[in-house]
Amino acid sequence: MVRDINTDFIRGIIPPIVTIIDENERIDEERMRRQVNFVIQGRVHGILAFGSNGEFYMVEEDEMKRGLQIILDETKDRIPVYFGIGAIKTRKCVELARMASECGADGISVLQPMFLKPTEEELYRHFRSIAEVIPGTPMLLYNNPGRVGYSLTTSLVTRLAADVENIVGIKDSSGDMTLTSEFVRLTKTEKKDFKVFGGKDTLIYGALVHGADGAIATTANMFPELVVSIYEKYMSGDLKGSLEDQFRLNPVRLSMDRASFPVATKDMANLLGLDVGEPYRPTVCSSGEVLDFMKKRLKEAGLLE
Q: Three-state SS for 32?
């Protein structure tokens, strides 16, 4: 399929930006704008609003719209803004997709429905139904089997890529490099503009080696320059430097696993003085040995004095 939709801008390092809230769990506009500018100054190639680490599952639709509008307004077209959708019901996903497109999002990302165990045909209809209501807006599939309980298959993804013009890529958070590489091989053979993004911060270099177009990386919320350097050095041919930066990042990222999900991202951002506040309840910020271990790894990487 020759695509009429421009996808050249869909590349590089994209943080799933943290959703910063006040004591009433309303989006804190001032601090949200500050975080947008922080990651842009770190040279990221896009922002994903309401991804997994953006706590989309905690946010009501009216607040999602307000948050997206704040991000779009502050970004001012400097970089693309994508909107994450993780609702279970197809109709709700359709409503959110339409809202994001009308607000001016540059693209959307859609997670497979959690809690359910749908057939491949049901998933095909689900994703196609969402894409068809926003025919001019690029849509990325989002595969996260660790959180959902099942994986998108290569047969489903290649079928959607072939059949639906504005399904233009996928973020694969499986951590299975064979699967990521198969998404690259099977989609790009016939459609060279289909975009594949790694979803594991520790495997950005590996995804790029296998032909991925970038990564959606939560650590780019905290140290965007380091994460972006993995991509930029690789693309410039400095493979050794890219791998060195990946290995500098990895112990820091792995230290976050001692905290509960999705608290770790805000924990580490707060340690670095970014003041992103608390997560939505019931989760709470970490303390004690968890934070001490993160600090240790940050200092060893030269990211905290």
A: helix
